[in-house]
């Protein structure tokens, strides 16, 4: 989604505190596991800023740091750096080593990268549904390489083993990762 | 997904058992990022500047370096990878790096050639403005610099759009040489890259 560097100067505007509260609730609703850390992710005091990104993506930032972004009515996707800070708060899947370089060059994540021996999906019965935001880890690595929205339920990924699995993600070194808000 | 379900999923996946316990204060995991490519160091090998990253890590975090880079061959031996695909990957990596280096070199060249043009323009009746063009190429924020200049010379200073595109800083008063000195001293810009001249409106 942010394959190209984001054009500066940015158009940013302050968010109303009511909207900020709503956003906060939505975030907790979307990531129940993030609840204990929500104050650290998004302190009550600070005022959020909304930035218009490419393709009409809304990027939310606090103190010149990107917190998360949203594309239209899609779920909120956290900044990869937040995923690094609170890895336990997000459902995680794993890709094999071979897929890393494709992910880092901005490709959509395809199913074989997840179903091969190096990949990891949640066990049966704990499947993650389509539309969920997931952190994507890599084989032999500690930190996530990408966050994105599942385009297929993990159950389907396991059975179909073909096609796009995750889309609209933020990966290491993409435009959003390199974005500096002055 | 309900909270319970989500919790279950996390406990079973056992990704981060140490952080699972109930800690109240600083909960954020502190992740180190590479100073060269901004990735977590374990991903440097896939980045565009892995050779440099390697040097940096070796210097600043030798422990991590040995963990990440030296354990590599063992891991590779343990997991049999198709040599053809590995070759391909290495090749692509080398290409990426070369491209990145070329880009960097180009940028350096450009930065060397970049110039700041300062022009003193006469307005009405021996009144002047000083127009400064080309500050962006030196990584200066136009708005902030304008404010600083205004404060320094105690005059009006603003950022204006140029008809040719881009932006310039307009400073009231005849301050060409002073601006040049200030830029050299405060912003550490090489005086050779600054041109001062006079112009007409």
UniProtKB/TrEMBL annotation, chain A:
Occurrences of domain PUA (ranges): 91-173
Subcellular location: Cytoplasm
InterPro entries: MCT-1/Tma20 (IPR016437), Pre-PUA (IPR041366), PUA (IPR002478), PUA-like_sf (IPR015947), Uncharacterised_CHP00451 (IPR004521)
GO cellular component terms given for this protein: cytoplasm
Gene Ontology MF term list: RNA binding
Presence of keyword Disulfide bond: no
Keywords, in A-Z order: Cytoplasm
An annotated GO BP: formation of translation preinitiation complex
Entries under PANTHER family matching the protein: MALIGNANT T-CELL-AMPLIFIED SEQUENCE 1, MCT-1 PROTEIN
NCBIfam families from the UniProt entry: unchar_dom_2 (TIGR00451)
Known function: Involved in translation.
Similarity-based family: Belongs to the TMA20 family.
Protein name: Translation machinery-associated protein 20
Species, as recorded: Ascobolus immersus RN42
Automatic annotation (TrEMBL), chain B:
Biased composition (Polar residues): 9-22
GO molecular function: mRNA binding; translation initiation factor activity
Region (Disordered): 1-22
Domain SUI1: 116-187
Any GO BP annotation: formation of translation preinitiation complex
Domain of life (superkingdom): Eukaryota
InterPro entries tied to this protein: DENR/SUI1_TIF, DENR_C, DENR_N, SUI1, SUI1_dom_sf
Protein family per UniProt: Belongs to the DENR family.
Complexes and interactors: Interacts with the 40S ribosomal subunit.
Protein name (record): Translation machinery-associated protein 22
């Amino acid at each position: 989604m942010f394959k190209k560097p984001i054009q500066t100067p940015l158009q940013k505007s302050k968010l109303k505190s009511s909207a900020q509260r709503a956003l906060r609730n939505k975030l907790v609703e979307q990531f129940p596991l993030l609840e204990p850390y929500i104050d650290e992710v998004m302190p009550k005091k600070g005022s959020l800023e909304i930035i218009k990104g490419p393709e009409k993506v809304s990027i939310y930032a606090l103190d010149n740091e990107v917190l998360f972004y949203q594309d239209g009515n899609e779920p909120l996707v956290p900044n990869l750096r937040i995923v690094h800070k609170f890895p336990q708060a997000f459902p995680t899947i794993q890709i094999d080593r071979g897929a890393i370089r494709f992910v880092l060059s901005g490709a959509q994540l395809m199913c074989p990268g997840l179903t091969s021996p190096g990949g990891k999906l949640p066990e049966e019965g704990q499947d993650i549904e389509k539309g969920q935001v997931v952190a994507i880890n890599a084989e032999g690595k500690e930190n996530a390489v990408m966050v994105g929205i599942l385009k297929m339920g993990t159950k389907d990924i396991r059975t179909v083993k073909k096609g796009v699995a995750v889309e609209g993600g933020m990966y290491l070194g993409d435009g959003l990762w390199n974005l500096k808000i002055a | 997904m309900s909270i319970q379900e989500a919790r279950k999923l996390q406990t079973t996946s056992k990704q981060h058992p140490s952080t699972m316990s109930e800690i109240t204060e600083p909960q954020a995991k502190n992740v180190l990022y590479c100073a060269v490519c901004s990735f977590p160091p374990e991903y440097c090998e896939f980045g565009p500047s892995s050779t440099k990253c390697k040097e940096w890590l070796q210097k600043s975090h030798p422990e991590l370096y040995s963990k990440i880079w030296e354990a590599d061959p063992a891991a590779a031996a343990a997991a049999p990878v198709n040599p053809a695909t590995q070759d391909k990957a290495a090749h692509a990596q080398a290409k990426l790096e070369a491209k990145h280096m070329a880009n960097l070199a180009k940028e350096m060249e450009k930065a060397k050639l970049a110039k700041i043009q300062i022009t003193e323009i006469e307005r009405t009746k021996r009144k002047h403005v000083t127009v400064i063009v080309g500050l962006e190429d030196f990584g200066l924020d136009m708005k902030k610099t304008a404010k600083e200049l205004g404060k320094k010379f105690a005059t009006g200073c603003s950022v204006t759009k140029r008809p040719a595109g881009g932006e310039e800083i307009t400073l009231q008063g005849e301050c060409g040489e002073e601006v040049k000195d200030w830029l050299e001293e405060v912003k550490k810009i090489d005086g050779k890259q600054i041109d001062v001249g006079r112009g007409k409106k």
